[in-house]
């Protein structure tokens, strides 16, 4: 039986800031039980500079139930501060999982990869 090594598909979690001051958590790689602690630590950080948060999942190639759980835990933390969470993702497997689990009813999910600045979210620069 094949085993999974966390180093095979590392998870990258980078926090940047939108010009409006809203933190943007950019996640890339596989978000699963082996890597979820990195994201959970960022999402549950009470020291984030704004009550609102954008989670950019456009670089996520796989997400399991632990990854989904970390998103929900992050939303709870942000809601407790009176903020909102927006999730960016591209159409595909991650968006389908969010829809299947009905997390699209919990988060504002933007599948276009772009949220208007007045909504306090991120516009990813083009390469």
What does this structure look like?
With 127 residues, this protein is an alpha/beta fold. It has a single domain (12-113), classed as 2-Layer Sandwich (Transcription Regulator spoIIAA). The protein is 25% helix and 26% strand. It is built from three helices and five strands. It has helices at 36-43, 65-80, 93-100; strands spanning 12-17, 23-31, 53-63, 85-88, 108-110. The chain is globular and about 30 Å long. The termini are far apart.
In CATH terms, what is the architecture? Answer: 2-Layer Sandwich
**Number of separate domains:** 1
Q: Please state the average pLDDT score.
A: 82
Structural class, from helix and strand content?
alpha/beta
CATH topology: Transcription Regulator spoIIAA
The biggest sheet, with number of strands, parallel, antiparallel or mixed sense and barrel status, is: 5 strands, mixed
The DSSP helix count reads 3
Compact description:
This protein is α/β, with parallel strands linked by helices and 127 residues long.
